[in-house]
Design brief:
This protein is of the alpha/beta class. Strands 2-8-7-6-5-3-4 form a seven-stranded mixed β-sheet, sandwiched between helices. Strand 3, helix 6 and strand 4 form a beta-alpha-beta unit. It starts with 5 loop residues before the first helix and ends in a 5-residue tail after the last helix.
Length: about 400
């Protein structure tokens, strides 16, 4: 190479995949690092894609998405929020990841600041860097049940702040925002004329009978803000790369123009599969949730029974975020120690920002058998290596 871009030299590598790579080097570990359901995509969704392929829905489609897809998503949000959404409010994207980038391209200029919770989903940082903007941390505390606070958001605002990213249910923290939280955050954002990007990809993975609250259930929110969502987690469709952005029609039109230089369009047959998922009776979603709930108890209850661990009860998504400060080790050192001695791979909390130090993120999207074995191994190791904690 004659030269490298500044972006290529500074782009933040994924610590989640880094830990997964280390784990694979030691043999056959129990992998609790990746946020990927261990379920297969349901057959009725696969069949919808196969039918689309057989009907030759394999050509370029509109940049903004297929009309049937836009209509299905718009209907979903109309029913969910009680406010009217039209197909023109919807854009199909390559998973939520591309949708997030397209929102950033639409609202950010070089040097603008983006408020991001700390801890946070780490891929946000590379996307922010890609458009020449700067990430600014908003600290999130365990004492607040890992919920981002409107007051902390406002304290981080400067005259360069243009975008706020919120994520509920939250990866990696497992917390959810309620209506009052959203109302307070929206009031701060509108007061300072800051755009909100609400990442809601775990919307259907919420426990204890609680229901997801979307930013767009707050009156007026859809005029100036965005919701990004995906089929990956809800329907076990991670490899399909099916997601979408919901927003103002003019913004959707602008993002569709960007698509011309990025990837043209999500495959029409993929969108057919996504429509089949949305228009189903959602039985499979409830079955997945029941399985995740069982796994949640295995992990959270199991960790809290091990001396040295304290873990808040996960409210949403499929992650536990236990406090490990009693071990007096950095999160990376302790994660590597567990990997070496138990062959259980866990992501250090520091992978999600400085406020994640002293914590681990454990994905319980894996089988109950693997989760039980992982907790057993960790408990047995801690009993041997840290007898002073018992």
């Amino acid at each position: 190479m004659h030269q490298w871009s500044t972006l290529s030299q500074n782009y933040p590598a994924s610590s989640i995949r880094k830990m997964a790579k280390r784990a694979r080097e030691i043999g056959n570990p129990i992998m609790l690092t990746m946020g990927e359901p261990n379920f297969e995509t349901p057959d009725f969704i696969k069949q919808a894609a196969i039918q689309g392929i057989n009907e030759n829905r394999t050509y370029y489609g509109p940049n903004v998405g297929e009309h049937n897809f836009q209509t299905a998503v718009a209907d979903k949000y109309t029913k969910m929020t009680g406010f009217q959404f039209e197909p023109d409010n919807i854009m199909a994207s390559f998973g939520a990841t591309e949708g997030i980038l397209l929102v950033m391209m639409s609202v950010l200029n070089e040097g603008d600041e983006v408020l991001v919770s700390n801890p946070h989903y780490p891929n946000y940082l590379g996307q922010i860097m890609s458009v020449g903007a700067q990430a600014v941390d908003v600290p999130v505390y365990e004492k607040n049940q890992f919920k981002i606070q409107a007051a902390d958001i406002e304290a981080a605002i400067t005259d360069k702040t243009k975008l706020l990213i919120i994520n509920s249910p939250n990866n990696p923290l497992g917390s959810i925002l309620d209506r009052e939280d959203y109302e307070a955050i929206l009031a701060v954002a509108d007061k300072h004329k800051i755009t909100i990007l609400s990442d809601e990809v775990y919307e259907n993975i919420i426990y204890d009978g609680k229901e997801h609250v979307s930013l767009f259930q707050i009156p007026g929110a859809s005029e100036n803000h965005f919701v990004v969502n995906s089929f990956s987690k809800t329907y076990a469709m991670t490899g399909w790369r099916a997601g979408y952005v919901v927003g103002h029609k003019q913004a959707i039109h602008v993002m569709a123009e960007f698509r011309e230089g990025i990837g043209f369009a999500v495959a029409p047959f993929t969108q057919d599969a996504a429509v089949a998922a949305l228009e189903s009776d959602q039985t499979i979603v409830r079955e997945y949730l029941q399985a995740y709930d069982e796994r949640r108890h295995i992990v959270v209850d199991g960790l809290n029974a091990i001396p040295g661990f304290t873990c808040l009860k996960t409210e949403g998504a499929f992650y536990a975020f236990p406090n490990i400060q009693a071990f007096n080790k950095s999160s990376e050192a302790f994660a590597m120690e567990l990997l070496e001695h138990t062959h259980v791979a866990i992501t250090p909390g520091s992978a999600f920002g400085s406020m994640g130090e002293g914590y681990l993120r454990i994905s319980f999207a894996q089988s109950t058998e693997d989760l039980k074995e992982a907790i057993s191994r960790i408990g047995e190791y801690v009993a041997r290596a840290y007898p002073e904690l018992h």
